[in-house]
Amino acid sequence: MKKIFTFTFVLACFALSAQDFSKNLATAKSSYASGKLEDSRFAMQQMLTEIDLAIGREILKLLPAKLETMAANPKSDNVTANTGLAGSVIHRDYGTGEKISNIDIMSNSPLVASLNAILSLPFMANSGDGTQKIIKVDGYKGILQKSVDTETNKTDYTLQIPINATLLTLAVPNSTEADVIKMANSIPVSQIAKLVQ
Amino acid sequence: MSKFLLACFVSLVITSANGQGFVGKLKQKASEAAEKALEKKAEDKTGVKTTSGTDSETQSESESSSNGSSTGRPTNKGGGGLVSTPPDVNQNLTDAETAFKAGSYGEARYAVQQAMLGVEMEIGQKVLKSLPEKVTALPMLPEEDQVTSTGYGWAGLTIVRVYRTDDKELKATIANNSSMMTAVNMYLANGGYSQQTGGQQNWKQTKVKGYKAIIEYDESSGYKLSVPLGQSSLIAWEGINYSSEQEMMTAANAFDIDGIKKMLGEQ
Fold first, then answer.
1. Closest Cα partner for A68 from A101, A91, A105, A104?
2. Å from A66 to nearest chain B CA?
3. A42/B contact by beta carbon, under 8 A
4. Of A196, B15, B62, B217, whose CA is between 20 and 30 Å from A156?
5. Which of B149, B145, B119, B121 has the alpha carbon at shortest distance from B131?
6. How many CB atoms lie within 10 A of CB B224?
7. Which of B176, B173, B175, B165 is nearest to B255 (CA)?
């Protein structure tokens, strides 16, 4: 029953988005034809936002329902389309209490350039103290960073994978490297890459 | 007698050696002439200048010395550049629709961006047409007209028109969805910043055709006058070798600010 409800909700969202897209497309076309260029441009900006939202929803469908033992929290699934400098952000989190993890995918991320620079310099990418290393997930290189909380002695991990101009971040507090790598490997990075191209 | 015979033999050998040298030289000259004739024919047919032997060496040496490089790479002497054609808006909107319906969101996004780029270029051209052809006796330089658009909507549309005579210049820049807006609006919103209490006054608030503006003066770059238009547009004039603030204001007043604002869709 719950699955049927979720499916119907997703379908309704898509239908709504498709409807808005068509409406804005019609406005863009008619405004352009009548010489109202600024109105046409505004309608196109709205279309871009709707496309970003549609992409976000498709990516959410691709993300795993579980990361190791942690189940996804569909209620906190979120897609924010900005058509702005920071681009759109797709968020999903997993688990409850102390065992949690987050996946964030940000298009046009300003961090991508610096991460790509690190990835292209192996001597910079792998730190001697083991706090930073390069791993490969589904064929894509990413930077895995470890930080230890000095008070609680817990180890937090952050994996950042640049995909073209998009940045995928997996943050797992209080975990082990092996677990984080297992979780990362359940993310279909190459399929996400196709959508964000 | 034997001496005479020896002398004859030596002279014969020398003559024959000279003869061989002479024949060799003749052969060399003949082959050079043949090569030159062939090259000339090839040049006539292809229209490409070729060089060989010592000539080419001399030429390449002179080229490399004039280019300052010794890599031997040829330098580009022209190619016509790129054809700047704005994207077809209607075609891109149709492509976007097809791609969106097929679920190819990446393609749809690209097509909408191209359509936006096309519309922004048209807006830019329309604004340029509306600008005056002469300002404070300075004629416009149409070859320096510029419309820059990213097609993203947020990074904006920039339109540039230059007026110049000798060392006097006025550059008008119209920016839509510009990040420059933030700074200018901050100055205008905070009255306390508006006047300097001591020292030389380098900038101040003013009004152009009823719009709040900021005028700045710098000894090396001259006057700069910025007027925010509506929510997200800005028009700025940079005047080099303008004699006074008043002259700069007169130049700005020659522009139809209301018309520009309307074209950019500002309220």
1. A101
2. 26
3. yes
4. A196
5. B145
6. 18
7. B173
- b/e sequence A24-61, b meaning 16+ C-beta within 10 Å: bbebbbebbeeeebbbbbbbbbbbbbbbbbbbbbbbbe
| A38 closest CB neighbour out of B100, B106, B264 | B264
- Interchain CB contacts (distance < 8 Å): A and B: 72
What is the nearest CA distance from A142 to chain B, expressed in angstroms? Answer: 23
HEC secondary structure over chain B: CHHHHHHHHHHHHHHHHHHHHHHHHHHHHHHHHHHHHHHHHHHHHHCCCCCCHHHHHHHHHHHHHHHCCCCCCCCCCCCCCCCCCCCCHHHHHHHHHHHHHCCCHHHHHHHHHHHHHHHHHHHHHHHHHHCCCEECCEEECHHHCEEEECCCCCCCEEEEEEEEECCEEEEEEEEECCCHHHHHHHHHHCHHHCCCCCCCCCEEEEEECCEEEEEEEECCCEEEEEEEECCCEEEEEEEECCCCHHHHHHHHHCCCHHHHHHHCCCC
Provide ipTM, 2 decimals.
0.75
- Across chain A, how many H-helices and E-strands are there? 6, 9
What is the value of pTM for the model shown?
Answer: 0.67
Q: What is the pLDDT of residues B86-101, one digit of tens each?
A: 789 999 999 999 999 9
Other Cβ atoms less than 10 A from the Cβ of B203: the count is 17
- What CA–CA distance (Å, rounded) separates A18 from A15? 5
Residues 130-189 of A with CB under 8 A from B: none
3-state secondary structure of A160: strand
The amino acid present at B117, given as its one-letter code, is: L
Q: Dihedral, CA atoms, A52, A58, A60, A64, nearest 10 degrees?
A: -150
Contact B96 A25 (CB under 8 A): yes
